[in-house]
Amino acid sequence: xxxxxxxxxxxxxxxxxxxxxxxxxxxxxxxxxxxxxxxxxxxxxxxxxxxxxxxxxxxxxxxxxxxxxxxxxxxxxxxxxxxxxxxxxxxxxxxxxxxxxxxxxxxxxxxxxxxxxxxxxxxxxxxxxxxxxxxxxxxxxxxxxxxxxxxxxxxxxxxxxxxxxxxxxxxxxxxxxxxxxxxxxxxxxxxxxxxxxxxxxxxxxxxxxxxxxxxxxxxxxxxxxxxxxxxxxxxxxxxxxxxxxxxxxxxxxxxxxxxxxxxxxxxxxxxxxxxxxxxxxxxxxxxxxxxxxxxxxxxxxxxxxxx
Length: 307
Fold this sequence. Notes:
307 residues, elongated
């Protein structure tokens, strides 16, 4: 019968879970499956007419109202179901096997570096310093994004918003650009160049593909120019390479001047999404390209990128 079939499938899947967790103890199979189930349940709730702005409690909706959710609750932890069975069509949705296949495919395609523990940071204090650093700059990116959302069509408003959001003097904002060019050969994502004297650093922020307050057609076109082109000593994404060239043409004068005045400052190139790809290329050129000759040797350059 259906109940026995479900119990057999649950037992089979649990055995697969145990096998995977034993072989890959750090994978977190159960967490992955629970996350997938949660995403699907939320999606099914919306498909049943629940609007995004409506609040709900889990107790307000019964299992029978949600497709692929078993009506019977198992009390034993060993019988926790990672398989969803729809009684309407009798089909078994083997989520675990799907995730397992995706993981296996990724392992096959990945380089073997992931399995070499020595390449990962082992020192806990160093790990925490890096986590704190990444968290600080991630928060910084959000502040930049908020200032851009408040932007109201004139450069003065943009500078004022940046200064207020980042708590810096307006004169320390050396350059800001927020526009949607008609020609991608002369376009870059939104960029800001700001001096932070209290931290002794100059931060160049390169934004991701702009969606708010309105989408940028030029940013999207940069994304879509995905073919490889010659760059530096190798090849790069053409759209990102074009944006890198544009940014360096716009900023090298300001960058060189401020770093010559403050040769003990660090230079941080910060980027997210599309901006992360561009930031990597900008960092390469400033460290090892012809532009590096205009940067004092004492300046340390850091590229911090978020995918």
